[in-house]
Design goal:
By secondary structure, the chain is an alpha+beta fold. The chain contains nine helices and 15 strands. The longest helix is centred in the middle third of the chain and has 24 residues. It binds adenosine-5'-triphosphate and magnesium ion (MG).
């Protein structure tokens, strides 16, 4: 099936790329972003990226999980920090955005969010409650993560004594690099760096407590922030299985059972992909298992089924 017919075939549950009648602000690895007057319209597609490459195979329903979960968290964390969300109800979006009409509702439904356009602060604000991934690699080499010294003898997957803030650069292309808090102060100034660290750790702690009640461990997560009218806002996506590591609490610590994108990374490593093009396709069973994990994360965190829309 061609990309175009996937987009227009509303029977199909997968959306690889959208083409709405609005000026394109940019296409990220996962989101198509449109200008909507002073605001932005962010449409989460079903694209999946791993190791900085978009895979040719979409994961049906993934975009709707990302948007619904971001909305879930945005609506619960407003007392910690303001965020960019204006609306994600498709009818309200069509009503507010000139240029959209009822014909666009099927593309918008569940996956689009109208947001305040912000001046992005170009830092990935990572918080880790558990030691794994690139932090585990760094700890093994140096005994520290992003300049934060950690106790000796920790193992992959161990809980950290307290959540740590390990910022990274937002590289225009390629891989984001971990930076120290001192580097962050040099980039954004001491006052903004302090705000980013405090807000990120508070958001992580709030979400990790909620996740624990739902049978999930929030091992780590990444936030993006922006400025708008002199105010710092949480932007992009929040606490989704794309931006976070969620593990099944029941299987921990015997196994770090991933309810997030790690499942796909593990598959790609198992087939020996060197993380360079050509980018492998995913077999149907890996797509189905990934989709089921994203839906299960949604189900556990919200206590609801993802509605068909
Ligand atoms: N409120 C906002 N104002 C401005 N930009 C935003 C806002 N919310 C999200 N963005 C940006 O929109 C894009 C969303 O697309 P996507 O998440 O697919 O990008 P990405 O591949 O992760 O790329 P990037 O490396 O730029 O984050 C990101 O560049 C993100 O930083
Ligand atoms: Mg992104």
């Amino acid at each position: 099936m061609s990309v175009e017919s996937r987009i227009t075939n509303h029977e199909s549950r997968e959306v690889l790329q959208t083409s709405l009648p609005l000026p394109l602000y940019g296409r990220g690895k996962v989101r198509d972003v449109y200008e909507a007057g002073e605001d932005l319209l962010i449409v989460a597609t079903d694209r999946i990226s791993a190791f900085d490459h978009v895979l040719p195979t979409p994961v049906p329903d993934k975009g709707r999980v990302l948007t619904a979960l971001s909305a879930f968290w945005f609506s619960r964390t407003g007392s910690i920090v303001a965020n960019h969300m204006i609306a994600w109800d498709p009818v309200e979006i069509v009503r507010r955005v000139p240029g959209l009409d009822a014909a666009t509702l099927p593309v918008l439904a569940g996956r689009a969010m109208l947001v305040q356009r912000c001046e992005r602060i170009d830092v990935e604000c990572v918080v880790r409650g558990y030691l794994t991934g690139s932090a585990w690699e760094e700890y093994r080499r140096t005994g520290a993560v992003a300049g934060v010294a950690l106790p000796p003898g920790l193992r992959n997957g161990d809980a950290l004594p307290e959540p740590i803030f390990t910022p990274a650069t937002k590289a225009a292309t390629g891989h984001d690099a971990n930076i120290t808090y001192t580097d962050l102060i040099e980039t954004v100034g001491g006052s903004v760096a302090g705000d980013l660290r405090e807000l990120s750790v508070r958001l992580y702690t709030f979400a990790a407590t909620h996740a624990a009640l739902c049978g999930l461990i929030l091992a780590d997560t990444k936030f993006e922030f922006g400025r708008q009218a002199g105010r710092v806002r949480l932007i992009d996506e929040a606490l989704t299985p794309d931006s976070s590591r969620y593990w099944d609490a029941g299987s921990y610590p015997q196994s770090l059972l991933p309810f997030d994108k790690q499942y796909v990374r593990d598959y790609l490593n198992a087939i020996g992909w060197n993380h360079e093009p050509p980018v492998p396709t995913l077999p149907v069973e890996v797509v189905a298992a990934t989709r089921e994990r994203y839906l299960e994360t949604y189900r556990r965190l919200t206590g609801q089924e993802l509605r068909d829309s």
